[in-house]
Design brief:
Helix content: 10-25%
Radius of gyration: 20 Å
CATH architecture of the largest domain: Beta Barrel
Strand content: 35-45%
Mean pLDDT: 86
CATH class of the largest domain: Mainly Beta
Number of strands: 13
CATH superfamily of the largest domain: Avidin-like
Length: 251
């Protein structure tokens, strides 16, 4: 697959680049595809190869929110599909990335066209299930290698690392206890505390990163994080360990 730059007129170039990188990393986790990096190039039909070509279009909606279109083209077979969705929040694009990309490829192989679709509406039962999580919804920060943590009312979340990696997580709450766990495959960038060689060696077999936190009276989230840590003084040996963390809500 040839992966091309995102087309956008938005001035928020940092978010556009972050989303482009996230799409790229998500494609790398889909079995059966080798992704060729053309993120510095814009797609041109004249230069299309026999590979699948992919690029996204992201624009700000005049009514608020974002409009994201995913495009997959197989020029040699005269096949192309596109899928357009409107998102209330930019971070919802990140959360929806993996299933949207998988759906796009599935429709390309079936030679079908995906029409413009709207975000799924939550039913009343879903709202009831996640009422307690509303108190956590918002943006958090607090770890040395993490830029921000976004928790959504749906019980999903996104952790954005300072190295550019993006981790999807699920969030559950029981009273004042909060459990957050990684969803999807691990990659080495989820372990910036480790030497790079050790992270690359162990990421594929790593258990999901998870946090067990307590919502304090002061409004912070405090507790422990289970992740890979260095095993003694060896730069290449790691083990599953626990570190203490404190998250503060960003205003």
């Amino acid at each position: 697959m040839d992966f091309y730059a995102t087309e956008s007129s938005s001035q928020d170039t940092g978010m556009i680049q972050m989303t482009t990188d996230h799409f790229y990393s998500q494609f790398q986790t889909i079995d059966g595809y080798i992704v060729i990096d053309h993120r510095k190039d814009h797609f041109s039909m004249e230069e299309a190869t026999s590979n699948i070509s992919f690029y996204a279009e992201i624009q700000e909606s005049p009514e608020g929110g974002w409009i994201c279109t995913l495009n997959a083209i197989k020029a040699a077979e005269n096949k192309n599909v596109s899928s357009t969705k409107k998102y209330e929040s930019y971070y919802m694009i990140l959360l929806d990335a993996k299933p949207s990309l998988e759906n796009l490829l599935s429709n390309l192989s079936g030679n079908s066209k995906v029409s413009v679709s709207q975000p799924e509406q939550k039913d009343n039962h879903e709202d009831e299930r996640h009422t307690d999580i509303e108190i956590l919804a918002g943006t958090w920060a607090g770890e040395e290698f993490i830029d921000k943590i976004l928790i959504l009312r749906s019980g999903k979340g996104v952790i954005i690392y300072k190295n550019g990696a993006i981790m999807n997580v699920s969030v559950s709450i029981d009273g004042s206890s909060v459990h957050i766990i990684q969803t999807g495959r691990s990659n080495a960038s989820y372990f910036p505390e480790l030497p790079r060689a050790a992270a690359l060696k162990n990421a594929a077999s790593a258990p999901p990163v998870e946090w067990n936190l307590v919502l304090t009276a002061g409004g912070s989230l405090e507790g422990s994080k289970q992740t890979l840590i260095q095993n003694g003084n060896s730069p290449s040996e790691v083990k599953k360990g626990t570190v203490n963390v404190v998250w503060q809500r960003r205003k």
